[in-house]
Amino acid sequence: MDRLPSPTPAAGITRATALKTLAGLAASGLLALRAKAAPAAPDTETAETADGSRKPAEPKSVPAIEHESGIRSVRFGRRLRVPTHPGSVAVIDLLDAESFFETTVAYAGAIEKSRLFAGDFAGFVVAGIETTSDARKREYALTPTASSIDRRGEPLPGRKRAGGGAPEMLDWLSDPWQRETERLSGRETARRVLAGHSYAGLFTLHALLERPDAWDDFIAIDPSLWWDGGRWADAFHETRPNQWAGKRVYLAYAERPRRGSVGALDRSAPAKERIAEVLRRGGVEVIVRRFPDEVHGTVFWPAMYDAMKNFWLRMP
C-alpha cells in the first residue's frame, strides 16, 4: 500500500491550511477525509474603521478538526475517528461499521468528555470496518466454520455449506489493519478493543479464542451462538489462564425473541452460561448483560453504551 500522509489535527489552524491538507489527502486516491470545523472567514477578510476605510480584520481561530478518515478497498470499507486532543488512545475496532459507526463515535465523544471518565488514556479512536452489504459475503467473513444449518438447528435443504472465512479475516484484522490504523491516527495505543454484534459478535469470541493477545477488551453483543448448530460454541470448554489473564469481556444478549427465533434463543442458553463460566475461571473480567426489552436487531445501541460505560466510566 502506498504511504499516506498521516492526518494530524491541530488547534488554531487556518481554514486555508486545513483545506490544503484535505486536498493533499484526497489527491492520493486512497484516503477520504471528512472534516468538521466551524466556518471561518477568508484570510483576506477586512473590517470597516470609524473613518470608512478598511483594514485587515483580526484573524479568526478555527477549532481543531475532529475528523474521520476512510481507507477504501475492494473488499471492505473502512472509517477512522480520531480525537482532536493529544495523548494515548484506546482503539475500538468496530465491525459492521456501516450500521454502527456514527453511534459509537457519539458514545466515544460523550464518554471521553465526561467528568466520570476513568480511562488511563486520553480518548478513543473508532476504527470502523464496513464488512459488506452482501449478506453471503458477510456471513463468510465473520463465521469461524462452514455450515448448512439454520438458526433453528435445521439443515437447509439444497444449501451448500457456507461461511468459515473468519480465520482469514482475523489474520487481516489483527496485523495489517492494526498497523495501518495506528499509523493513520498517529497516536500511541493504550488499549485495543474488538466489538461486534450478531455474526460479528461471534467473530469477536472467535478472536478471543484464537488471537487473544491482539486485543485487551472484547465486546460481543448478541453473538450468533446458534451458528453451525451451536457446535462452534463447544470450543469454550477449557480455560486458558496464560492467554486470558487480565482480559475484559462484555457479553450482551437480547431476550425478547424475534419472530420465528424462539428455538434459537432456547438452544443457545446453555452456551451463554458455559462461555461466561469458562472465561471467569480463565482469569477474565466478565460482564454479562441481558436486555429483556430488546430484540436482536435493536440490542446493539443500549449494549454498546453499557459496555463503554462499564469499562471506562467511574460511576458514583
UniProtKB/TrEMBL annotation:
Superkingdom to which the source organism belongs: Bacteria
Chain residue ranges for the region called Disordered: 38-68
Gene3D superfamilies to which the protein is assigned, alphabetical: alpha/beta hydrolase (3.40.50.1820)
InterPro entries: AB_hydrolase_fold, Siderophore_Hydrolase_D, TAT_signal
Gene Ontology molecular function: any one: hydrolase activity, acting on ester bonds
Amino acid composition bias (Low complexity), ranges on this chain: 38-50
Signal peptide bounds: 1-37
Family membership noted in the UniProt record: Belongs to the esterase D family.
PANTHER family registered for this protein in UniProt: SIDEROPHORE TRIACETYLFUSARININE C ESTERASE, SIDEROPHORE-DEGRADING ESTERASE (EUROFUNG)
UniProt-recorded name of the protein: Esterase
Organism encoding this protein: Sutterella megalosphaeroides
Lineage, opening ranks: Bacteria, Pseudomonadati, Pseudomonadota, Betaproteobacteria, Burkholderiales
